[in-house]
Every structure is written in structure tokens, then in C-alpha cells.
Amino acid sequence: MSNLPNQEASGKATAATAAPDRVTPDRFTPPARLADNPTVRRIYELKRELNAVILAHNYVLPEVQEIGDFLGDSLGLARQAAQTDADVIVFAGVTFMGETAKILSPEKQVLMPTLDARCPMAEMVRAPQVLALKKKYPAAAVVSYVNTLAEVKAISDVCCTSANGIQVVNSVEADEIIFIPDRSLGEYVQRHTRKKLHFAAGYCPTHHRVFADDILRLKREHPHAAVLVHPECTGEVIDVADRVGSTAQIARFVEEMKESFDTFVIGTEVGMLHRLQRDHPELTFILPGPLVVCPAMKRNTLRRVVDCMEKCAPEITIPEDIRQLALGAVERMLAVT
Ligand code: SF4
After folding, report:
1. Where in the chain is the domain with CATH 3.40.50.10800?
2. 21-22: strand order across its sheet
3. 278 vs 15, residue with greater confidence
4. 51 in Cβ contact with 88 (< 8 Å)
5. Of the four, 157, 161, 185, 191, which is 20 to 30 A from 229 by CA?
6. With respect to CATH, is domain 21-118+297-317 assigned 3.90.420.10?
7. Phi (first) and psi of residue 136, to 5 degrees
8. For residues 306 and 43, is the Cβ–Cβ distance under 8 A?
9. Cα–Cα distances in angstroms (integers) from residue 205 to residues 78, 133, 250, 262, 270, in the given order
10. Which residues pair with 91 in a beta bridge?
11. Is residue 187 within a helix (H) or strand (E), and if so which, with residue range?
């Protein structure tokens, strides 16, 4: 019991959640600007035939973002997966996101454009390492970032995302937390909680290609720019940022700050710039270097989207005992935020 979320504490927390964008007003009609593309037209035919919804993460290719019914961060898309009345979920993201959708909606078919879209961070900390940490810190609760495999969620007390990590950690009754897998996110959360966090060695190779030196150079070149970064970046990058948040929170920061700034340095994956530029064509967005690209996310192509819908494969499956256990951790997170 001591490891379950403390609802009173969670009520005082301030981390924001953000609903994913609804991209297409009508799920079965392609956006006018894409209506001439035969692949897109076929995707929309298949959506109707399958009663499918397409969930797209902010980091996928621009053309795939455009055909998403919902575009957002992992928390917003997890909520959408739980709420949709579609029979089929097509998840354009990485496999742990498809797994989370399946955990929440076992009666739905969850398709992914490719099962090769695997987040390297999620593979860095597997169940045996978590069990070893639990043995080392028996009084600690396990808070796992959603960037984990279902087998790890199944042995976690509660999940969190980059949008709600502080809020979730502060909601747990235990004073010690095993925070996995992302050490950078954990160290960021540690700055905002009195609880003692224990870490594993996971990290995001993409966000670790954002460098503080590049941010400082851009600040010199654009002295009136605001710097918004993702908490998967290193502590040195977070130290020189104006705001830190998930992709949905970064989108919200731009809304809040656009009257005061016309240029934003965006310390997260390049896919985020497409959405920001689309929503704010009058503003300038700068990526701190050409390397902030997630290869796994870019494996979701339009051709693979249509292929998976034609074949109804590949499909996400999870053993029911693992799914049930993982569901508890995901639901406890959703109850907090
Ligand atoms: S950006 Fe990083 S954490 Fe996100 S899916 Fe890619 S490798 Fe994983």
C-alpha cells in the first residue's frame, strides 16, 4: 500500500497535462491539401473500412503527422487510446507507445506501421535490472517512465511521462523512488522533489545530442530568443533553458510566450518543429544542431502506414498476465494527472 499514489499530494502538484491536437476534423475525410495523394486517399478508405483511428507522436515525419487523427505526446496519446471508440488503433510512434495503447484497450486491435520502431531508451532497462534495484532498495516505490517495455511496467508501482514526472513522484507515499529508465528525466525530477530518487543508466540518444554549447551560441546569436527544452536533455542543457517540458508542454509554452518572443530555440526532436511552424508561421523556431533526430520515429512512413492497414499487421500483442499488471501502473498514473 505504501507505494500507491497519494491523491492528496497529487492534487497540489502543478505539472500540466495537455490533450493531443485533433488534426483532422473528420476522421474519414482527408485534409484538402493531401487529397491528391493516392497513398493518403487509400489510408482514409482503410480508416473507414476498419473503423480505425490514427494516433501520431509529435516526432514522426511531417507527412505522417498530417494524417494523424490525433497528434501529441505520449501522455496525451495514451489518454486518447483509452477513450477512442474506434475498433482499430494505428499508432505512428515507437513500440512502447503501441504497447501502452494495448494495455489500456485490450479489446482493440493495435497496429503499428513497423515493429522496428523501437525506442533505444526503453530497451536499456529490462525487468531483471529493475528487480535487482528493488532488492537493493526494498523500501522504494518504482516509478517508470512510459518509455519502458510492458514487462517493466508490470513490475512498477506507477508510470509517468515527461509531462507529469514531478507530479507522479510527489504523489507516491514512499520517500524513496526507483526512477527508471531515464536518468536525465530522473535528475530533473529530483530537482523538484524532496524524495530520494535512485536511478538506472538509461538515456535518450537523441536528446543527448542537444548540447549546452550550441544553446549558448544560439542565445548569443539570438539574444531575444526563448529556449524551451525537453527534460530528457542533460542537466547542462536544462540549466541554460528558459522552460522545460514535454512536447505538448513546449507547444503550450510557445502559446503563452509568443507575445514576448518571436524566436524560440527548441531542444527536442526535429519533428516538433513541423507542428510548431504549422501552428505559428509568423514565429521562428531553431533546432540546436542537425543531429536531434530520432531514427526510430522516422521509421513510420506513409507507405508503412498504408501497408499495416492493408494487412492488419504488424499488431501489438501482450501476454494477458503482463498486461493486467502493467495496466495497474498506467491507470495509477492516469488517476494522478
Ligand atoms: S526521442 Fe529518445 S526517448 Fe523518444 S523514442 Fe526516440 S530514442 Fe526513445
Report:
1. 21-118+297-317, 121-199, 207-286
2. 21-22, 70-72, 52-57, 88-92, 109-111
3. 278
4. yes
5. 157
6. no
7. -70, -35
8. yes
9. 23, 23, 20, 29, 14
10. 55
11. helix 183-190
Residue holding cell 499487421?
313
**Going by CA atoms, what residue is nearest to atom 6 of ligand 1?**
294
**In CATH, which superfamily holds the domain spanning 121-199?**
NadA-like (3.40.50.10800)
pLDDT at position 20 is 63
Higher pLDDT, 302 or 25: 302
Kindly report the length of the chain: 337
Task: Give me the architecture of the 207-286 domain, per CATH.
Answer: 3-Layer(aba) Sandwich (3.40)
Q: What does the DSSP 8-state code read for residue 283? A: S
CA 165/CA 31 separation, integer angstroms: 35
- Least Cα distance to 247 among 276, 224, 286 occurs for 276
* Inter-residue contact 151 to 166 (CB < 8 Å): no
Q: Is the CB of 296 under 6 A from ligand 1?
A: yes
What confidence tens digit (pLDDT) does each residue in 117-127 have?
999 999 999 99
Q: Is 332 exposed, middle or buried (0-12, 13-18, 19+ CB in 10 A)?
A: buried
Nearest CA to ligand 1 atom 5: 119
For ligand 1, pick from 145, 233, 269, 270 the residue to mutate: most ligand atoms within 8 Å of CB.
269
Q: Is the Cβ–Cβ distance between 247 and 207 less than 8 Å?
A: no
DSSP 19: P
Task: Decide whether any atom of ligand 1 lies within 6 Å of the 161 Cβ.
Answer: no
Cis peptide before 314 (omega within 30 of 0): yes
| Nearest residue to 64 (alpha-carbon basis) of 314, 309, 335, 336 | 309
Could you write out the DSSP letters of every residue in 114-159?
-TT---HHHHHS-HHHHHHHHHHSTT-EEEEESSS-HHHHTT-SEE
pLDDT digit string (tens) for 179-202?
Answer: 999 999 999 999 999 999 999 999
Q: What pLDDT, on a 0 to 100 scale, did the predictor assign at position 15?
A: 36
